[in-house]
Amino acid sequence: MKHKNRLTLWVVFMTFIISTSLSWAENIVIKGSTTVLPIAQKVAEAYMALYPDVKISISGGGSGNGIKAIVDGTTDIADSSRFIKDSEVTMAVEKGQYPVPFSVAYDCIIPVVHPSNPIKDLTMNQLKAIYKGEVTNWNQVGGADLKIVVISRDTSSGTYEVWEEKIMKNERVFPGALLQASNGAVAQAVSKNKNALGYIGLGYLDKSVKALSVGNIAGSPETTLDGTFPISRPLYMFTNKWPAGELAKFMNYVVHPEKGQKLVKDAGFVPLY
Question: The domain at 2-106+235-266 falls in which architecture?
Fold first, then answer.
């Protein structure tokens, strides 16, 4: 009987310990840009290894969806590959949210083709003409007599919006472009189509696709930082109001030169410093 009582007490004690530990655990929710996603994943993995009581959940969906989540109060951090729009700030303030931007890395958007494509360089004007549907054959830009398969991002993507601003000069991509939901999906689509042209963030480059220079300037950490590559941009994490507690501790880790910024480089992007 005494043994049974001791067992019951032990079960009650362990249940208390477990439930208390769970109540003490910090949870951080991150949503948004698929460009920033590899950075968020690497930093979160390292942070949780250092602080096992912190649980970080991450999902993509695009910059627009991340900022919508911070506006709606359904995320702690919104990843974004573009800056927040004035209209989004207005909506946020109306809902009592005050988004605060943190630059966490730099990136450049690189045009990519299939590795077998002989094209090495396109100008800004050629890229615009292709994405407007005015140039439709690779032989019009020095390539083979083959129809160009144009691959773009969906309109909720921050990468698309930067491309629209810098390449399209705020004109829309033509309706015949095939839209993909993420950088990874664009890279995969281009790697499987010898006639395709797409664009992805620097951190998504691998041997499955061939990077093109733009106006004879290659996208690289150096040309991103010095601004010579024409399709460069900062990457952001937004919090609601100035972060406090565990969230502040996490953001400090992300931007720390010897911590999060080393992981930014490991993820294939350009550190702040």
Answer: 3-Layer(aba) Sandwich (3.40)
